[in-house]
Amino acid sequence: GAGVSQSPSNKVTEKGKDVELRCDPISGHTALYWYRQSLGQGLEFLIYFQGNSAPDKSGLPSDRFSAERTGGSVSTLTIQRTQQEDSAVYLCASSSGGTGSSYNEQFFGPGTRLTVL
Amino acid sequence: AQKITQTQPGMFVQEKEAVTLDCTYDTSDPSYGLFWYKQPSSGEMIFLIYQGSYDQQNATEGRYSLNFQKARKSANLVISASQLGDSAMYFCAMREVLWGYALNFGKGTSLLVTP
């Protein structure tokens, strides 16, 4: 039973470049979440997917951020025209609970550490 | 969004002693769930314990227990018999219904266990 995996584990990029971060959730998990962890802001929620649908994108910090999920499985978080303030660890989590679940343990991936120079 | 407050940025405890990490929350929803996660220096997020607002008893998981005081809106984590491996960041979180049950985290408490 594999856990949540994320790739790459580390990404260094230059300001202005686009980056793609990948998340492979636990097989069968319908809910998928993206978070960002930075020194100044702690752990911030970015976006969630129920199946392939992202009902609410208001947590994304700017329109440079987008995310998609295909086949109810893999998700990609894309950051366009990266800025230095985008430097953070991006964490993905998945859970088997649907929106009606009161107990919704989330299993986290190891994260992608993004550094924007 | 609901609010989670962890007022202790850092805590020290001696090995084998018990320690309490504070967490208060603010919500108007009568149904809610509270979580504690541990994040060691390796960066992984490890689920520790869960408390539902309608649970009759305080949650316990091994050396972890939750001192849940609903009227005071507090959900403090108690670690008994601390071990060196307990040194880590500890986050209190509440699920957000509007976010599809994503977690709203507090700022965290850094715990250092000393020999």
Summarize the structure.
The complex is a heterodimer of chains A (117) and B (115). In chain A, strands 2, 4, 5, 8, 9 and 10 form a 6-stranded mixed beta sheet that branches. Chain A has a 4-stranded antiparallel beta sheet with strand order 1-3-7-6, with no helix packed on it.
Name the features.
heterodimer; A: 117 residues; mainly beta; 6-stranded mixed β-sheet; 4-stranded antiparallel β-sheet; 10 strands; 0% helix; 47% strand; B: 115 residues
Helical content class of chain A: under 10%
Structural class of chain B: mainly beta
Q: How would you sum up the global shape of chain A?
A: globular
Spans of chain A of 5+ residues with little confidence (pLDDT < 50)?
none
Gap between N and C termini of chain A, in Å? 37 Å
**Describe the biggest sheet of chain A?**
6 strands, mixed
Count of helical stretches of chain A: 0
Q: Percentage of helical residues of chain B?
A: under 10%
The chain-level mean pLDDT of chain B equals: 94
Task: Summarize the SSE layout with pairings.
The complex is a heterodimer of chains A (117) and B (115).
Chain A: E1 5-7, E2 10-13, E3 19-24, E4 31-38, E5 42-50, E6 65-69, E7 75-79, E8 88-95, E9 107-108, E10 112-116
Parallel strand pairs in A: 2-10
Antiparallel strand pairs in A: 1-3, 3-7, 4-5, 4-8, 6-7, 8-9, 8-10
Chain B: E1 3-5, E2 10-14, E3 19-21, E4 24-26, E5 33-39, E6 46-52, E7 60-61, E8 64-69, E9 74-79, E10 88-96, E11 102-105, E12 109-114
Parallel strand pairs in B: 2-12
Antiparallel strand pairs in B: 1-4, 3-9, 5-6, 5-10, 7-8, 8-9, 10-11, 10-12
